[in-house]
Design goal:
The complex is a heterotetramer, with two copies of chain A (618 residues) and two copies of chain B (336 residues). Chain A has 618 residues and is of the alpha/beta class. Chain A is built from 21 helices and 25 strands. Chain B is globular. Classes of the chains: A alpha/beta (618), B alpha/beta (336). The complex binds thiamine diphosphate (TPP) (2 copies), iron/sulfur cluster (2 copies) and magnesium ion (2 copies). One iron/sulfur cluster binds next to loops of chain B.
């Protein structure tokens, strides 16, 4: 480590918190993340939960992680390799040794590097750092456990409780290292532990101890500082993708004036949407935790018929189960939001890992010609916007809308300026009105966008029947007439196609004049954007277009794509969006760059891939 | 609102009914329309939900809001309708296949949760619409297109399954018995919570006469008993038979024989919380008459109302009146 | 009608039988069809069931029809418009008046054209023929009912039973009209009514009466004769698509030596597969009529794990429900045949009508990267072959195979030479063998085709666990390792891709030297083939390629398609196969010709379409 | 074959078990392995099928053929395994969520059909694997991540639901009671037909102590009764309590008090065909001890065997030995 005491200014830094499930690393991480955000930095975070619910203490499978990317600007991902690693035990060190830069700062709890813990983590020598060949790292080995024990000896707390404050020591150390405001950190703690004064006091004390320890012991070490960004004014909070999704639905409910109903069944990584909404009884949200996914969507379809903004949330296997019922909503032309938080597949697959492999299922996973709208969010916080838009489109166009997010967005978080509801457009469902009588029929449509008008129980004089059998376009009665079926098939498609008129056009970022266009969709935005930027910075030319609207595609899609000689479609599956674009637009030259590993892209691999491609093209 | 009264006619619409001539479903449709009129909820606040099957076509023929949905999901969809808007009167019309084969899970969960639905299971012991395969209520050994050598599985008994799912209302009727049909449907509608009505119905085409052994006019009175809460369990052509308990079992006796008088006869208590006797009454057959009428009718916590109540309670205590309120109540910070 | 008694020789004729559901038209039709087949004609038939199970007598909605196409050769469809219509009542006449040629022969039961029946059929005048503007038809109005009553008056049968023989009178008349052998017809009846001698006698008598009536009354009328074909020698029977599918599975069971298990749930138009197999207890077939589609496929997956040739049968909505479980079979790499008999969609749609709109669902309707094999049969009788091939591929490549048929194939029939089992290839599942131990693991694969070896309960020393979570390629244990997931994803795809090595190449029919290639898949074969032939006969050039193997595509697909400047993909959906081909092969110019009306193509509309296209191209 | 005997060790494999330290599932796994050894079917002829959940991970830890399938479908998959090959010993291991939420329909149908499965429901009254949402067996008012203000729905009682589905074998055990666990699992395996074992199990992480009110050693003997067929229903720390019938109800009495002697105490008859008393025994709580042990064990037609028998019968009468035979037996004609 450096010998002179100085403050180095950084543009950005990646910090990885890691320890046993019980070590409170998620909390430490999110506190430091908030602290940075409050200071005015951009942040992006991603947790890395252990596969088991509670693996044996000190074991490799029990390591819980949290990655935080802080920067002055342009922070779009939690970062690739960490600059700083907090490792509360040897297992944490081992699990993360490949996830850090070669010259990373590693803060470790010296007390936990005893024989017992080393063995549990499967080390065979006594020097784990040597064994892992961590040669270039800057190590801050602090006897955290013993110092915490000393510090809280007089509180009368038992040993186990005392050790729970270890994470606060680490937080204090980090505050010192990054010249963060300890007082602000204390404020956050005060809020968090409002109702547990004893724990609060202990934590406050240990936090300060950690800070002091850094300051005193390593006063000669270089510390860091990250300039604050010029963020838009406003009130900010920390938001995870799943929360943002849930709140976006509530926003749409308020904007439309319709009650929000969620019918759902728990499934990783979508469960928090249900939980978040179940907790929002203060805002009148109704949730039904159904007996399965089919019942989840079916209760929502019932609620939609009854006049609610109805939604259901799930992940891949659940979407498969819901496919028949989505078809019913298509046929009955009822508004419905289906949130699918993608995870690794096929089958049960890799429930806790991220992937984008449900795209074709969302587009085509139903019997018959059954078009519905597909959207994809691309950052944790814009899950709010797309949940809102999904609801708006569903309600205004009387159609099911599938909103795709993924495990990476769902659990990732960023700082989010709480918007005013005025910033969002009005939602005007096509309610029937009295003047339509007596000629109104259930399939009476708005000529402009082929949307049928909506009547629901309680509306006098509009009683009618909907259902899954083909209906006559005029009377709404069951019809097996050949020409009517063609007409209705075409109308259902036309209704979806017409939505292209109300969604934003595709815009090109990076260097629009390039020959090569990078295309992405959904949750890969941050990594793609960052990599494209980095390639352009290196003097190469690369254009970039990212899709949030998948079906229908933005109106200008063909025009935009045809401008480029090569299109590199990057996605976390085996090429689904690439195939979709090919199937929709003839004459494109598409290169498919894919990864199916349950992991997001890394900026590094993307950058390398793009550079290779551009070099080969030359 | 209470001033308005309805006639069965108000629940009819112009649609031509498409069941086979002689199908028992016609009788159920008529009874339902009469019951709806008697219950007196406006057609505009009534919703009839069904799945798929001959029986599930019924919503098309009732002049209310209606959903003819997908096979087996009516209970779940009805649960959504009712929970979203508990003010509506929600009926689920379903077949033995729709409700107890593919729809079994949603059914038992709707019963368990005690959603305030009126579920009418039109039990013809066959899949009618798909032209004659056995159903989960077809009797052991039943020969059908899909069981050419007879089935080798015991059927469900809807009463038993309802009670197994902790049901609080169960009634049974026969297509031919319009009076009982109307009565039990009215009772089902008046019961707060999930009401299950099993209607024994004839499918003239694929399972003709399946309920004949009890339905035939000539012996129906001797082979069935119409239970009435508070009344003695007396039945028979001459009203001279009755039910008593012997040990843990029910027994049919003849009034006047062996010194039996009306006083010895069990009084039907549909309101008894313990379901043991209802269970036995629901299962009677053979020497014992098949029970029609309301077998169980017990009040309990109703899901859709409890949901609303919980929301009200939380709202009364909460400062959050809007999403903005809530978001600003989180841990936030200002950028100025 | 013609005045001179003569026998006209015909190449082909289309006959449509039609009457009340109770009139026995399906039986009459199939008897005459068999008669023609026995005589040595080619045949193709299609029933047209009423939408209601039993509509009121004499009503339009109660009309039941049966179309029969007989010819010397090249009979690939039931034909478009009928040359001969048998109409047992006014409703039958009305319903079919658009389905006959303008100069068709119409045989009608005069007795049923009374006021009552005319009203029931919604006629407003007394002359239905005039009212329908059937000017050019040749009418044979015979008092069928009264003659039958007279004829059987002395049998002591009741009126209702007597009238049930009306259809035999019609059959007799047809025998006369087509110079068919009445004795042969009697043989057929004798077989059919072996166990009901009274009915047999009545029918035999009425049959002869009908023949005699024609002969005597219209002896001056022209009758017809269709030359027999030079059919391959052998024993023939009549087969419907659903039967053929069921029997093809049994054949595969015999060839593989594995017991056949079907787990299914009734659904139109697939139910007969279940029924057919439930009746084959003599051949040891086990069927479970499950509580729903999910249980249907799940019992089959269990049976497959236990070592059976396992199958499940369904239609579109059922396939949607099965999608999650198909993913399990993909992941567990278990053999499974999923037969999907397509019908009109979306949702419950048009259950009794045909369509090809489940293609994309079959290909993509599952979560995650979940490749499986998709085949499509193209004639009622080759349902046998493709059910066999589906089983063979499933068993030999340890994968689910989806076999697509449709309502048209399922209910259509043709004469079928009963093959000897020697004509079919062997089926050799990749069973484990003792020598593989002790190094065998559940995912040990054959390097050549990436197929894992199969061990099932009862095999000593091979106990193992499979499941829906991602598994380590070596040990078969649960694995969340990134690189392993990529490897397994790639292997599952490679395994399917390798099947292209064992399936036949695509062959081009029609005129291979044309510029335009007509492409079809599945059940449209007969209509497309006939239309292409007819266009080529008219001196135009049209090539034709029909797909039975959808995923993987035949190896030479790209090479073949690239030979043509325009590819016209014709299908009964909104362009699914067209999109699929585009997504797989860049640089094609595809024109999509589609129809979504619940009806097969007609030869006429296809021919017209092709001619227009070729003319525009010039 | 009968000569070979197995040890629990033979049913263990090297896989490291991944439940949370202290999870009740460990005890069930051990009991199962002991029971399997006692039953004595070879590991190669034993299949363990599960769905998804913490509990459903169990097959990985048993050295038999195993399938860890998809959520809720274990009953259906096990039905396929057993029907395809009735010689196998087939176990289904499932959770309260897996079996009674998403899997409810397959479960009740497996019970009704009486497939010869041994179903062990590991009931911890919570969704463990998804980290703590309420399940269909969670008690009314239960606060969980998905019911932050408490549930408003009654739970299923597995015994009741099993009987409602016409089940013929039901037993109950506690994770902590290894002896009873092993005993009931052996009995389940020996029973021909569908056996349901409810194991009350603790989830230390998300529902710690949920069965504590009966499981705690200090009062377990007073709050539970281990039923044994043919033995009097006596229980309690001092074996001084017993059950009697009073009217239609069960009552707990103390031996020696009010002149009660062992003779007055009910003898447990698990083989009684009428399920009424089993129903009541299965539902005991509050003043009555929770019943452990085998509550019902009645022989009935077994589906998988009946299927085979039907096939044999048909085959004996049929001339068709092959598909060719069959095809040629149809209406055919020759082209020469
Ligand atoms: C998902 C799905 N599976 C199967 C079917 C086919 N299907 C329609 S109705 C029916 C059974 C109907 O039986 P039931 O509910 O008893 O009604 P019924 O016709 O006897 O009145 C079946 C199997 C379907 N429409 N959808
Ligand atoms: C189709 C599907 N839906 C939902 C899930 C998510 N999920 C996995 S396990 C589970 C509940 C498990 O509860 P239980 O069966 O009681 O098992 P436990 O973990 O409590 O042992 C859920 C909802 C899934 N894997 N698949
Ligand atoms: S088939 Fe049976 S159930 Fe269906 S309409 Fe006809 S008689 Fe009624
Ligand atoms: S979460 Fe609960 S059920 Fe799951 S392993 Fe841990 S203790 Fe057991
Ligand atoms: Mg029925
Ligand atoms: Mg559980």
């Amino acid at each position: 480590m450096s010998d002179t005491a100085k403050v180095t200014s950084l543009e950005q830094v990646v910090i990885r918190f890691s320890g046993d499930s019980g070590d409170g690393m998620q909390l430490t991480g999110s506190l430091f993340s908030n602290l940075s955000a409050i200071y005015g930095n951009e942040i992006s975070t991603f947790p890395d939960f252990p596969a088991e619910i509670r693996a044996p203490q000190g074991s490799l499978s029990g390591v819980s992680g949290y990655q935080l990317h802080i920067g002055s600007k342009n922070i779009h991902t939690p970062g690739d390799l960490a600059d700083v690693l907090i490792a509360m035990n040897p297992a944490a060190l081992k699990v993360n040794s490949c996830a850090i830069k070669s010259n990373a700062i590693v803060i470790a709890d010296q007390d936990s590097f005893d024989k017992n813990h080393l063995e549990k983590a499967g080390f065979v020598t006594e020097d784990p750092f040597e064994e892992l060949q961590l040669k270039g790292i800057q190590l801050i080995l602090a006897p955290i456990s013993s110092m915490v024990k000393d510090s809280l000896a007089e509180t009368g707390m038992d040993n186990k409780s005392i050790l729970r404050s270890k994470n606060m020591f680490a937080l204090g150390l980090l505050c010192w290292l990054f010249n963060a405001d300890v007082e602000q950190a204390k404020h956050l703690l005060e809020n968090k532990f409002k109702k547990k004064p004893a724990i609060l006091q202990a934590n406050l004390k240990v936090l300060q101890d950690g800070f002091n320890y850094g300051h005193n012991t390593h006063s000669s070490v270089s510390t860091y500082h990250i300039d604050p960004t010029d963020l838009p004014k406003g009130t900010y909070t920390d938001v995870k993708g799943n929360q943002a999704t849930a709140w976006g639905l509530i926003a749409a409910s308020e904007k439309s004036g319709l009650p929000l109903f969620l019918g759902s069944y728990p499934i990783t990584p979508a469960t928090e949407i249900l939980q978040e909404l179940a907790a929002r009884k203060d805002l009148g949200v109704k949730t039904v935790q159904a007996e399965d996914e089919i019942a989840g969507i079916c209760t929502a379809i019932g609620a939609s018929f009854a006049g609610s903004l109805a939604a259901t949330s799930t992940s891949g296997p659940g979407l498969a189960l819901k496919s028949e019922a989505i078809g019913l909503a298509v046929m009955a032309e009822l508004p419905l939001v289906v949130v699918n938080v993608q995870r690794g597949g096929p089958s049960t697959g890799l429930p806790t890992k991220t992937e984008q492999s449900d795209l074709l299922q969302a587009l085509y996973g139903r019997n018959g010609e059954s078009p519905c709208v597909v959207l994809a969010a691309s950052t944790p916080s814009n899950c709010f916007d797309y949940a809102f838009m999904a609801s708006k489109i569903a309600l205004e166009h009387m159609t099911p809308v599938i909103l795709l997010t993924d495990g990476y967005l769902a659990n990732g978080s960023s700082a989010w300026r709480i918007p005013s509801m005025d910033e969002f457009p009005a939602i005007n469902p096509p309610f029937v009105h009295k003047e339509m009588q007596p000629t109104w029929t259930p399939y009476l449509r708005n000529d402009k966008n082929a949307v049928r008008y909506w009547a629901f129980p309680g509306m006098e004089g509009f009683s009618h029947r909907v259902g899954g059998l083909e209906k006559d376009n005029q009377s709404g009665c069951i019809s097996t007439v050949a020409s009517n079926h063609q007409l209705m098939t075409d109308l259902r498609q036309a209704k979806i196609d017409a939505i292209a008129d109300v969604i934003p056009e595709l815009n090109v970022q990076g260097n629009p004049d390039a020959d090569v266009l990078v295309v992405g969709w959904g949750g890969t935005f941050g990594h793609l954007y960052t990599a494209v930027q980095s390639v352009n910075k290196q003097g190469k030319k690369l254009a970039f277009a990212h899709f949030n609207y998948i079906n229908p595609l933005p109106k200008n899609t063909e025009a935009v794509l045809k401008r480029y000689s090569t299109i590199v479609v990057c996605e976390l599956n085996s090429g689904q969006f690439a195939g979709y674009l090919r199937s929709k637009i003839e004459g494109l030259h598409i290169v498919s760059y894919t990864k199916v590993q349950g992991q997001p892209f890394t900026e590094a691999e993307l950058t390398e891939q793009f550079l290779t491609l551009l070099n080969n093209d030359k | 609102m209470h001033a308005i009264t309805y006639k069965p006619q108000d629940f009819k619409n112009g649609q031509s009914v498409r069941w086979c001539p002689g199908c028992g479903d016609y009788a159920i449709l008529n009874s339902l329309q009469k019951a709806m009129a008697e219950v007196g909820v406006s057609p505009d606040e009534t919703v009839v939900v069904s799945g798929i099957g001959c029986s599930s076509r019924l919503p098309y023929y009732v002049n209310t809001y209606g959903m003819h949905t997908i096979h087996g999901r009516a209970s779940a969809i009805a649960t959504g309708v009712k929970t979203a808007n508990p003010k509506l009167s929600v009926w689920q019309i379903t077949g033995d296949g729709d409700c107890l084969a593919i729809g079994g899970n949603h059914f038992i969960h709707a019963v368990r949760r005690n959603i305030d639905l009126n579920i009418v299971i039109i039990n013809n012991e066959i899949y009618g619409l798909t032209k004659g395969q056995y159903s989960p209520t077809s009797r052991l050994g039943f020969v059908s297109k899909s069981s050419p050598y007879g089935t080798v599985e015991e059927p469900f008994r809807p009463a038993e399954l309802t009670f197994g799912a902790r049901g609080n209302f169960f009634a049974r009727t026969l297509d031919a018995d319009l009076k009982t049909s109307q009565e039990v449907m009215v009772a089902a509608a008046q019961h707060k919570g999930c009401s299950v009505v099993e209607a024994l119905v004839n499918c003239v085409i694929f399972n003709d006469g399946t309920h004949k052994d009890i339905a035939d006019k000539s012996f129906r009175a001797d082979r069935t008993i119409v239970l009435k809460h508070g009344s003695p369990m007396i039945y028979g052509q001459n009203q001279d038979k009755g039910l008593i308990i012997e040990g843990f079992n029910l027994k049919s006796v003849t009034l006047g024989e062996n010194g039996i008088t009306e006083k010895d006869i069990l009084i039907h208590d549909a309101k008894c919380i313990d379901p043991t006797l209802h269970f036995k009454l629901g299962n009677m057959k053979g020497d014992l008459p098949v029970a029609l009428g309301v077998i169980r009718d017990v009040d309990a916590l109703v899901y859709d109302q409890a949901v609303e109540k919980q929301i009200r309670t939380v709202q009364e205590k909460s400062k959050n009146k809007s999403l903005s309120d809530f978001l600003h109540s989180l841990e936030t910070w200002e950028i100025k």
